[in-house]
Amino acid sequence: MLILAFDTATDVASTALVRDGELLGERRSRAVSVLADAHELLAAAGAEPRDLDRLVVGTGPGSFTGIRIGLATARGLGLSLGLPVAGVSTLEALAAGAPGAVPVIDARRREVFVLLDEPRCLRPEELELEPGRVCVGDGAVRYRGLLEAAGAQVPPRGSDVHVPRAHFYAGLARDFGPAELVEPIYLRVPDAERAVAP
User: Fold this and answer.
1) Are the folds of 2-90+164-196 and 98-161 the same?
2) What is the pLDDT of residue 122?
3) 56 DSSP β-pair partners
4) Nearest 5°: CA angle at 58, between 143 and 13?
5) CATH number of the domain at 2-90+164-196, out of 3.30.930.10, 1.10.10.10, 3.90.170.10, 3.30.420.40?
6) Where are the domains of the chain?
7) CA distance 140 to 148
8) How does strand 85-88 pair with strand 119-122?
9) Fewer beta carbons below 10 Å: N end or C end of the chain?
């Protein structure tokens, strides 16, 4: 089974091609390059879009624009190629890359998205962790000082554990179906809606 997986919810987009659980290739770039990355991965594997069996897309939380790019890409590919699609939480994929760690994504507005018992959006100083708990993700890097002062550990900035790597999505995906049924995880209203609220 050939699976194309990608996530565009954070500043670093990740795209991977996986065949029967084996990683064939993975690329990192920006959300707007996800189709070019997919094309290059397929070409390197000697495959074409029609050879794909399934798609997996990151559903956030993260950048509203990034999530929309990813979902629109998954829906377009799913519909045009007749492929089943599954969505996976960006936080869950980040956690899969660092078992036992708390995934922390920069939510902007001095907030973070975290996965504890459930996905949450809160201020970094509100994050209550037991001493020594490892935090990963771009939010952990951005708020390193605050988290470490509270007793958490944050791996070095360049560590792979801070990027939700797309190849984990293929293993986490469960419910494949029509592309239009995949829903985003936002956790708060978009900035545009907030700006026009009375």
Assistant:
1) yes
2) 95
3) 5, 86
4) 65
5) 3.30.420.40
6) 2-90+164-196, 98-161
7) 9
8) unpaired
9) C
For residues 189 and 146, give the distance between their C-alpha atoms in angstroms, rounded to a whole number: 26
Superfamily of chain region 98-161:
ATPase, nucleotide binding domain (3.30.420.40)
- Taking only the tens place, the pLDDT of each residue in 78-96 is 999 999 999 999 999 999 9
- Which positions of the chain have pLDDT values less than 70? 190-198
Q: 76: alpha, beta or left, given left = phi > 0 and alpha = psi -120 to 50?
A: alpha
Q: Which two tokens stand for residue 194?
A: 């907030």
Measure the CA–CA gap between 87 and 185, rounded to whole angstroms.
Answer: 10
Beta bridge partners of 86: 56
